[in-house]
Amino acid sequence: MVYEVYLRSFADGNGDGLGDVPGLRSRLPYLADLGVDALWVTPWYPSPMADGGYDVADHRDVDPRFGTLADVDALVADAHALGVRVVVDLVANHTSAEHPWFRAALAAGPGAPERSRYFFRDGRAGGSAPPNDWISAFGGPAWTRVTGPGGPEQWYLHLFAPEQPDLDWTSPEVADDFDATVRFWLDRGVDGIRVDAAPAMAKVPGLPDAGHPPGASFASSEWVGNPHWDVDEVHEVFRRWRRIGDAYDGDRLFVSEAVVNGPERLARYVRPDELHTTFNFDYLKAPWDAGALRTVVDGTLAALAPVGAPATWVLSSHDETRHVTRFGRERSGAAVMGFDDAPPADLARGLRRARAAALLTLALPGGAYLYQGEELGLPEVEDLPAEALQDPTWERSGHTARGRDGCRVPLPWSGDAPPFGFAPDGVTPWLPQPASWASLTAEAQRADPASTLSLYRAALRLRRELPVEEPLTWLDLGADVLAFDRGPALRCVVNLSARPVPLAGLGRVLLGSGTPGEALAPDTAVWLAPA
Ligand code: GLC
């Protein structure tokens, strides 16, 4: 199981209200005790923080707000001593606008070789309109016009924020430099690399229009033949990196973030000579519905079998509404990256379902990714004051989409008032924590056997101990019930119906997400040892 550390919000070691590497290092025993196999840590690189660190100004260093390279070395050493691996986040589709390459490109002017590492193009309509109809994931056009010494000139491409100009991966210099970056981190002993925005890294030559209708959203899971997403040439990059990774000792892992159209397109990222695994966003985006979830599970396993890659299962991340909140809504599927305007949730129902979903997720064959705080049952913080919002989505959407800050609120560790042990007392965290989180701290839950933290700890321990087998075998307990065996050691039953499901004859209960009983209550799950 890989645990996503959203570094800014995990633990603040230096008292500036922002999480950092020493803070994370001090909490490693918690993660080892939880039963984490590996950490994926979000970017710690020097960054102006226009997109929370996904705007990287130097890929081979650490931002002083997050620590130093020596802190990273110490983190990796301590993690390894605890049997925990470390995966770093590689942002290679774009750089920060403050990256020396982009500054040089701006300074050099139209037509200069310095511009060939990015996409600079003349505008249409005599220069005043963007070069094509491509859109940004954070809203609005994917092009921004440069103002040079003589006035407005070319436009540059950014599929994310304007502070994140896209790199042109046909430039040999770009590819060579990222080879050096991959080696830099693998040489430091990290165990893997998470590839940010993987499907963005190749564009159709000539940059033709995508045909996006006016006001289109960045619905990449629906796009077919899009010229700026999931373009076939992108796979050359991953083959190149895989060759580098394979030359290292140990099992170095590449995992991609790839929101693409269906499991067959996704499977292309994990062909034997490409990345090892990829996040499964179809699972994350699925509503709380037995049919929909089963379709995703079957579709995922069927698509990955031919390429021999393990599945991954993920319910939440730093980009999506926390699933306690999502599952408490009528429309429980995930929205696109912070564009979530769904009505308020029934959080008690959401938590019941989230606990059941944890047992489902951890029983499925393959790897699971947990997002920090889901083991505490944290909900999305939906009432952050507008002036606290930092996600570029808020500005880019003209204040219509609040963005992703609500899932990024710093973790509550201990105590009964903010900063809840996230930072030294008296320090204000970079996003305000709700006072109601006093009952959700790791400390409070550690002592309570019925807590969500205790459920995750027990499930992760059993998951390691039980001799589960591939593949999964479905049982038929009714249309709204997901039930399957993983060999003779583990049976998982999840009740998504509105009625209790009798458990008699199904086996001995090992662990349940709800109150133990003769029957499985709606929105709960159970692990059994089949009789
Ligand atoms: C990925 C990250 C997200 C970031 C984007 C641009 O989707 O997960 O947080 O905003 O890439 O780098």
Question: What does this protein structure show overall?
Answer:
This protein is of the alpha/beta class and 531 residues long. The protein folds into three domains: 2-96 and 172-446, TIM Barrel; 100-157, Oligo-1,6-glucosidase, domain 2; 471-529, Sandwich (Immunoglobulin-like), CATH 2.60.40. The chain is 25% helix and 14% strand. It has an eight-stranded parallel beta sheet. Helix 11 packs parallel to helix 14 (452-465). The chain starts with a strand and ends with a strand. Bound molecules: alpha-D-glucopyranose. Alpha-D-glucopyranose binds at residues 51, 54, 91, 160, 196-197, 257, 318-319. Belongs to the glycosyl hydrolase 13 family. This is Alpha-glucosidase. One of its GO terms (molecular function) is alpha-amylase activity.
Topology, element by element:
Elements: E1 2-5, H1 21-26, H2 28-34, E2 38-41, H3 69-81, E3 85-90, H4 100-108, E4 120-121, E5 143-148, E6 151-157, H5 172-187, E7 192-195, H6 234-246, E8 253-256, H7 262-267, E9 277-278, H8 281-285, H9 290-304, E10 312-314, H10 323-326, H11 347-363, E11 367-371, H12 392-396, H13 442-446, H14 452-465, E12 473-475, E13 481-485, E14 491-495, E15 501-502, E16 508-512, E17 519-520, E18 524-529
Parallel strand pairs: 1-2, 1-11, 2-3, 3-7, 7-8, 8-9, 10-11
Antiparallel strand pairs: 4-6, 5-6, 12-13, 13-14, 14-18, 15-17, 16-18
Domain Glycosyl hydrolase family 13 catalytic: 4-408
Protein name: Alpha-glucosidase
Organism: Geodermatophilus aquaeductus
